[in-house]
Amino acid sequence: MNKGDNMEEFIKFAEKFNLNDSMIKLKYDHSFRVQKLCETIAKDEKLPENEIALAKLIGLLHDYGRFYQWNLYHTYDDTKSVDHADLGVQKLFDEDEIKKYWSNKEDYQTIKKAIKYHNKYSLPENLKENTLCKIIKDADKLDILYLCTINDIKTKEGGEVTSEIKKDFYNYKLIDRNKMKSEVDNVISRLAFIYDLNFYYSFEYLKNNEIIEKLFNNIENKEKVKPYFDEINKYIKEKLEVIKC
Question: Which CATH architecture has domain 1-136?
């Protein structure tokens, strides 16, 4: 069960929900893309086979709580419902659903912590150097940025950049979403995701898939946000050079 059967179990789990609902399908597809990103980053970091398998599982299950969240609250806004990561942990570990996906109980705390903290603003001090926790945070952010470039999930622009958002951005900080006051703040907060990335592959993914260029193309009033995109492009270039060394 540890290596190959968890994808089949996840499909059976997801089929209990309405996959014809575009919002459920969104998280279903997202889960598989994040799983693949986790696997790719883990392999690029040359992790042992068991850790690669764990990374894949964490990627697959990281948004487990989203399925229940949508069914219960019909929203993916944690501030208007529940913290989806905590809900996922509750379902997987308090209700023993994890047993369907992974049999080695010695790995449960590792899986639990990675899922619980994948959506948090920062990792606790004792997990800041935890590779699997960092991998899922990177993979999740990369796919969210990808989603912002396609179909009807386009990043739009409106309003002015809040001064506190601007300050945090130029101090290379993640943006606290509670500080956002406009659509353009949301654009800047997405760009600031990149300050929280950890691995060479993550920056390479952004470059090779032209994520920043595609995001910029979705902006209506480009001049207002161009300095922020220029700063992020410079940051990505520098990180690729530094990490590679």
Answer: Orthogonal Bundle (1.10)
